[in-house]
Amino acid sequence: MRVLIEPNVASELSHIETYTEEESHLLGKVVDFVVTLGGDGTLLHVSSLFKEDVPPIISFHLGTLGFLMPFNVEDYQEALDNVIKGDFLCTNRMRLMCDIYHKQQLGTNTPSRSFQVLNEVTIHRGSNPHSTVINCTINGHMLTDIIGDGLIVATATGSTAYSLSCGGPMVHPCINCILITPIAPSSLSSKPALLPDDSVLKLNISQKGKSFTTTLDGTRSIKMEQGEHIIIKKSYYPLLTINKTNETTDWVHGNGKLIEMSEKSSIWNQSVHTTSAN
Q1: Angle, alpha carbons 196-56-31 (nearest 5°)
Q2: How confident is the model at residue 126 (pLDDT cuts 50, 70, 90)?
Q3: What is the dotted CATH code of the domain comprising 7-94+238-247?
Q4: pLDDT digits (tens, 9 = 90+) for 147-204
Q5: Which of 70, 120, 66 is nearest to 95 (CA)?
Q6: Residue 224: left (phi > 0), alpha (psi -120 to 50), or beta?
Q7: Contacts of 105 by beta carbon, 8 Å cutoff, 6+ apart
Q8: Which CATH number fits domain 96-234: 3.40.228.10, 3.90.110.10, 3.40.630.190, 2.60.200.30?
Q9: Catalytically annotated residues
Q10: Where are the domains of the chain?
């Protein structure tokens, strides 16, 4: 079996083969499956490595929550044996294609930059003290102006991340949809909405607003100015994650861990407040 590791850890494991930046675009064609070790952020990082086809990914939990990491690292041998034998099921996770249009590309069909996004695209005011004003159109039809701290455009996979903390719903990862969730909107009528997966969103920073920041999967941030825009639609290249049991059982189990952590946090906060009061 041929094993490859990422270039950024190659110096620590010099006896294992790696690849160059020039060869990275071939990964989807030559890699049979991917092994990740860490937390959910590790999976987001792996998603960013594959611009097109993504091989099945088996994720071992080493982080704090591990909502997307169903396997325990202690069970690695049995889990990997099953993968090598082809005895596994996958969840097909929709990704988003996010095209950024800066001023130089306005009026053209060529974006400045394009990204594959697994969780969410977040348009927010960043350090700007003023509210953002975002013109939101769907399939060429004006939906609304969103005024507030920003907007989250998420997949079903990303529905349990930032979007959830802003009041968005939890969505099963097998539901192909686009979820839009306002961040601290100034209007009480601005609510989260689920859109069909063939929707094409165009988000334009209004001339009434100030500059804003676009953050992709919580890792990469891009500054944008008045008049520039983003186009978001379903990607042609989903991300395949290997299930420990099946797509629904893993999702329900992950939700249980999320709720359990939330309850522990509440208990801890109550303890802190009680101690402070005493």
Answers
A1: 125
A2: confident
A3: 3.40.50.10330
A4: 999 999 999 999 999 999 999 999 999 999 999 999 999 987 789 999 999 999 999 9
A5: 120
A6: beta
A7: 111, 112
A8: 2.60.200.30
A9: 40
A10: 7-94+238-247, 96-234
